[in-house]
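Title: [Solved] Alpha/beta fold hydrolase 3D structure

Original question kept below for reference.
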Amino acid sequence: MERRAFSNGKLRLSYLDSGGAGQILIALHGHWMEAATFIPLADCLWPSWRLVALDQRGHGYSDHAASYGRSDYLADIAALFRHLGVDSAVLLGHSLGGVNAYQFAAGNPLRVRAMIIEDIGATVSGDVSFIRPWSGTFPTQQALEERIGSRLAPYVRNSFRQTAAGWQLSFNPADEEISQKHLNGDHSSDWLASNCKALLIRGEHSPITKETEMRNMAERRANTTLLTLPGGHVVHADSPEEFCRAVTAFLSGIDRL
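Solution (posted by the thread starter after getting help):
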């Protein structure tokens, strides 16, 4: 995948692009993560699908921002569409990216051909204050991993950066707290505002979503299918082969424009 960049106002945003002549799938990661988390999926889908994975504001190689409100993330997606020169695309979003995807679809129904929402509900209530100790610079990569803990470190590792002073994260934990507070709330009206085809993917052992909630989301919205796969909250990392098969099967049912 090639790394490229564009601007939304004064903010420089980075993304990974698998290239090729395939149909476009825009992938949006969750908090703590970045575009690189979708590289295995891009390899799996190419060349039928050109995967464009955005480092959302404050993450990866994109600039840190002054604001992390709901409208800010959606404006970044709109700017990416303009930069790519496309009228419509399929959106895939995990966690934070999932809410961003279905809220963008709610406001731009003609621009979203279909969407894949990974392990996030229509009502979000999270507290990420426990990541405050991840701030700062650590003498070694091992020290940073130990601070994060063995359970979460594998999911955050793409965000590790080595600097002259030591090891640190590409994101600012304080920004993640602010972003999460804006993310919390009942977004049911946004979830129900579009009617494009949608695939809801839930991790069987996810601590973030509940089976009953996700089933209710699928039943209330037209053209929506729920699929539960092995794994926790980050299904695409926990079960990459199963995730790829599910995404491929879903995408095969979308007519080429």
